């Protein structure tokens, strides 16, 4: 039952990420390098989008005034102080009673209520996505983050409605159906499952509504004002051709903004996220809920990037990472980043892991309770037989000798296999078998390569794809500024 639940939640994460990708992100294209960040590198261009908590107006009561000494300045020598325009005094006199960051974790956003139930259900959805309960000591911090996300979501929906952009219930129904189909359930069964686990179908529907509304608003308000010249497309293609053979990384990122005042708390939160990810939590799930970058909606996916496209702090770490590896918290201007490498490849070069294989799998099993020592002689004979299997023609004979099973599978991409098997099978030729793998309890197996079709050549840069990616990056930049303005102008009352 636990295994089935894990499979379900994994599929749910993938389905939700697919929804966001379909509604928010551009279609996958032949990778074009993202425009490099400006010299200041204040963020990862063009994917960084910090989400500060919305500003609220608080009425000061006539209570005893308190005086606090300003914290020491943390700016580097020669660096412009970010508070200079505010002309703040060195000694600050604070009036009124202390106000917690969130009183009851609920808010009224331009007259629209975000309830405690809304937050509870979205928090439960996070727990479902990560297939683990929310730790008690993490719950309050996560409530604050979830509330921030819900405030942004509400502002996006309100902005779309003000522009007379409607998201019809049928549009949401179709997306819910796709999510349910992704986890092999009907919408009604998905709703029941969510309710049983403390969330609700309405929470997912609201999230979908926000993503569709924001994407349509971007098309109407922003995309029509974006232009990309032919000379810019040509410059990108020239850079791609010049960088042929260089290493690219498929990177996921979780970005947490910080200030000098809360830097220690954010660093601690980053370590807690890393701990959860190392225990098997979903990177995409955590990115969707915690990351304050614009890529949060697509599970933190930065796409294919080269190290030099990222800030130096990230680039130096990325160059030392391989597929499947997770970084520690990396201090960057404005906060902390956690990056994960999903895959690597060489630009415009055929990738041997794109080879399509025809395989035979031989598996042998052991009686329940068999010890490792008792199984060792059989395993040694099985390993020796695999080394001299004589191609796929000898697979059935070997299976019969060990009373094993044979499964034929064609059209298997090498890159879709587990990383350990990829590394083992990259240099293997047709007719060879892997070393035995698996476990005594669940069975030991080998894979025999019956056929191998290598990728002939990598595709040349596609001008239309490059144009689309440049346009999308500029839309994202304008969208971040637009959301910033919505937050700044919002009337938000925390309750």
UniProtKB/TrEMBL annotation:
PpiC domain ranges (all copies): 246-343
Ranges of biased composition (kind: Low complexity): 27-77
Key words of the record: Chaperone, Isomerase, Periplasm, Rotamase, Signal
Look up the signal peptide feature and give its range.
1-22
Which SUPFAM superfamilies has this protein been placed in?
A: FKBP-like, Triger factor/SurA peptide-binding domain-like
Q: Which PROSITE patterns match?
A: PPIC_PPIASE_2
Q: Name one GO molecular function term.
A: isomerase activity
Region spans: Disordered? 27-82
Q: Report what the protein is called.
A: Parvulin-like PPIase
């Amino acid at each position: 039952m636990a295994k089935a639940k894990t499979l379900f939640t994994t599929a749910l994460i993938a389905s939700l990420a697919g929804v966001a990708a379909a509604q928010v992100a551009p279609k996958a294209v032949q990778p074009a390098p993202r425009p490099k960040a400006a010299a200041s590198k204040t963020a990862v261009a063009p994917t960084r989008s910090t989400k500060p908590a919305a500003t609220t107006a608080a009425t000061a009561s006539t209570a005893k005034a308190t005086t606090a000494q300003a914290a020491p300045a943390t700016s580097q020598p020669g660096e412009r102080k970010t508070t200079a325009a505010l002309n703040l005094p060195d000694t600050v006199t604070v009036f009124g009673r202390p106000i917690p960051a969130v009183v009851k974790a609920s808010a009224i956003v331009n007259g629209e209520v975000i309830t405690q139930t809304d937050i509870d259900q979205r928090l439960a959805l996070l727990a479902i996505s990560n297939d683990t309960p929310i730790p008690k000591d993490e719950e309050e911090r996560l409530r604050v983050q979830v509330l921030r996300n819900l405030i942004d979501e509400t502002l996006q929906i309100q902005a779309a409605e003000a522009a007379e952009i409607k998201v019809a219930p049928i549009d949401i129904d179709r997306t819910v159906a796709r999510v349910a189909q992704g986890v092999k359930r009907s919408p009604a069964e998905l709703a029941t499952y969510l309710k049983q686990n403390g969330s609700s179908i309405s929470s997912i529907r609201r999230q979908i509504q926000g993503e569709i509304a924001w994407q349509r608003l971007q098309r109407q308000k922003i995309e029509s004002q974006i232009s990309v010249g032919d000379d810019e497309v040509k410059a990108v293609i020239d850079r791609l051709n010049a960088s042929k053979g260089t290493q690219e990384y498929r990177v996921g990122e979780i970005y947490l903004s910080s200030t000098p005042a809360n830097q220690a708390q954010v660093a601690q939160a980053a370590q807690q996220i890393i701990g959860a990810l190392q225990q098997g939590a979903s990177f995409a799930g955590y990115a969707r809920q915690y990351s304050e970058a614009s890529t949060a909606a697509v599970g933190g996916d930065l796409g294919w990037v080269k190290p030099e496209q990222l800030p130096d702090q990230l680039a130096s770490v990325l160059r030392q990472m391989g597929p499947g590896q997770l970084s520690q918290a990396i201090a960057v201007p404005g906060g902390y980043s956690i990056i994960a490498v999903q895959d690597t490849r060489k630009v415009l070069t055929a990738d041997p892991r794109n080879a399509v294989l025809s395989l035979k799998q031989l598996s042998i099993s052991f009686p329940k309770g068999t010890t490792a020592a008792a199984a060792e002689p059989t395993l040694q004979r099985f390993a020796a037989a695999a080394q001299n299997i004589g191609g796929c023609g000898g697979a059935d004979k070997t299976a019969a000798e060990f009373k094993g099973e044979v499964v034929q599978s064609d059209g298997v991409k090498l890159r879709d296999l587990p990383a350990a098997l990829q590394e083992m099978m990259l240099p293997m030729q047709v007719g060879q078998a892997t070393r035995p793998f698996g476990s005594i309890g669940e069975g030991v197996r080998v894979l025999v390569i019956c056929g191998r079709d290598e990728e002939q050549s990598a595709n040349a840069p596609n001008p239309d794809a490059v144009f689309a990616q440049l346009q999308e990056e500029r839309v994202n930049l304008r969208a971040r500024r637009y959301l910033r303005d919505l937050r700044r102008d919002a009337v938000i009352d925390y309750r």
